[in-house]
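CPBP family intramembrane metalloprotease
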Amino acid sequence: MDDKRFFSRVGFSYFMMVVLTVAVQFLLSLLLSLIAPQAAGLPVTSWLLAMVPLYLVAIPVCAKMMQALPNMQLYRNEMRPGQWIRTLCICIFVMYVGNIIGNAVSALIAQGTGLDLSFELGELLSQGSPWFTLLFSVVLAPVMEELIFRKVLIDRTIVYGDKAAVVLSGLLFGVFHGNFHQFFYAFGLGCIFAYVYIRTGKLKYTISLHMAVNMLGGFLSSLLLQQLNYSAWDTSDPYAYIDMMFNHAGAVLGLVILEISMIIMGIAGLIFFAVSVKKLEWRSGEYERPFHEMAGAMFGNPGMILFLLSGVCLFVLDML
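Predicted structure tokens:
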């Protein structure tokens, strides 16, 4: 199989993952509206509609399609606790930088188009039980996403060299998030997780890092925001705002401690990144090519073009 056919198979597999996720979500939503319309607005329904099609249908089909490509067993190495902590700090730093870039790009697009591209992640996560956030975002998402975007993908693309495998893993991971707000930090985190997997050959390290990032950025903030009853705040009334702050002092303090802790970790991550970036080890692959040839083979094929177009559709739908 030549390089373009190889990457076309990769692109088409992940394109089908996007299509199946959207299609099954639509069919389940339609079915639910017919048999149990009263359940359509429940937070647990939103979680199930988002996760069941992806985890039970789309990802298994994508993984099955990728089995047609030869895979390679990576060398296995241990990651020391200190290395794991430093990597987590780097993840927090990259998450902050990616979030800033994503918000800036979204603001520019909103200014140019007049669209409302606000992304209230905190309000979204604070809806419903935070234990659903724990189950889906902290447990299931890291396991399933690391399987499909790291192991399934990198075990097959590593023959083109570490750099190609890392970039492709990060790019597909970022595009699959489907919006500008999350794309940049998801791309950065995806590259970090990919590099860790390549160097260790073990998913337990990338899954645990992914879980920690989602725990800090999702579950803990979700739990505290729900205690604050965030969605009910009327910030146009300063007195009600102050009263709400005092009535939920514990949750406010928890959010402040969480944010300060993450800022400290982010600053430490910047230092660790600056120190370690020149020490990164990039191994060549059996089929590695010069950059322009590699880019042409990777993206100049029908399967990858379909995947990228599906990503564009997700981005556009998110903006509408």
